[in-house]
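Quick one, T. Sequence first:
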Amino acid sequence: MNSETEKIVEFKIHRYDPEADRHYVSTFKVPVKKGMTLLDALLYIKDNFDETLAFRYSCRMGQCGSCGIMVNGKPMLACYTQVLHLNADTLVIEPLPNMPIIKDLVVDIEPFFEKFKLIRPILIKPQEELKKLVEFAQLPDELKKYWDLTLCIKCSICYAACPAVIDERFLGPSALATNYRFLTDSRDQGADLRLRAIADNLWLCTSCNSCTLFCPKEVDASSSVVEERSLIVETGNIPRTVMDVLTSVMRYHNPMGRYPTKRMEWAEGLNLKTYPQVTKADVLYFVCCLTAYDTRHQEIAKSMASLFNRLGIDFAVLGNEEWCCGDHILRLGEKGLFEELAEHNVSMFKKFEANRIVTLSPHCYDAFKNQKPYSDMGLNVQHYTQLLADAIEKGKLAPSKPINKKVTYHDPCFLGKRNGIFEEPRKILESIKGLELVEMKRNRENSFCCGGGAGRVWTEDALVEKRPCVNRVKEALDLGVEVIATACPFCVSTLEDATKVLDVENKIVVKDIAELVKEAL
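Structure tokens:
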């Protein structure tokens, strides 16, 4: 270790020998200097330890995208990432997933590029215009619409991070973002062709945000998919399952197709304070459609109500005046319907005097915090795990009854990936006596989506083995845990469906954290 070396970092590199068809791990200790990138470290290993190590790279500017790898579970560019910035003593290096491995860290990226052949990544013009020189000028305002989308370097990192790609029908985030880039280009005249090319698989996207989160060029592919759905919704050429969800919301203000007058049946016998009898409380408890109407999920709503009472919190609900927050509707592309739902809820928030809004669903939380017109109100909104974690930390809530179970936690995408709430749910679980918390390999930012976002919880049509929820439950089963804990009713729904499909209900159960805390009291 010379004077320039900052620290010694252990590299555990997952490798593949195609001749022996063997997967193995090689470990190297690398002296890391300031400014050393992951690519520099790999080159150091190749030059000093093992010249057979295979990996891809071309430039060192983060422009060609060829050096994408997985580092401690997250996809990133090797040439773009400094080792010291990762702040880790050990780095697990793996090839990008969702593509066949050729050798060591080199993967076959042909499946990724094959998707682009289906979307025509060039301007589409009528033949008569192609035969003559056409003078054309675009104003800066027009260019702004798609400028960011041109930054894609085809590194395939979004493809590697995408849960929907396990279904081969899905074109992938980069291809869809590129397609949208041409849809928004005023020079392009192939809108009908472009929308037809994506109509059969666009609904597989779960809006988990992994593509946008990990993109080294910060291309917002996730929003591009929503915009494309919006264009398709305008044509009316949408799957029957999607139409059924949108119709239910238009008629009943909830995607469950249930009468609004039935919304408070979950609270029967609880004697809750309800609008309009009450117009003021410390906490406005926003229950969510799934937990209000579905018999299984009503238990989650009841659990949270009992926890409010246990904490002595003055709370109330909007009752029949609570409408769907609209998140799934927005992600399905029905912007007008989302705005209608949001405007109603905003009007209710103005009528009800509350210090804060507490939601059960991360989807409601995200909508209120980040989506207009909710975000314009500057609402003081909390997800219930934030409230409970704070109460436990301050000693106001102390789970005393042991739950002697081996438990893993599934990070909901709209709580974790979109809002950075990772630690609060874990602190709650760790406070329960007897509970052994075991992390899945894919956790926190790299958590694998349950597959229920963007309305897919109601519109799922993929084959069983191609469903993200089934993939996720298999990961939990491999850990030997007895319980999958989560903090989202939609995750509970999809993961429970997966346990039924896999016929493992006697081996593993799915519980919301609110249910576990109530049980521990």
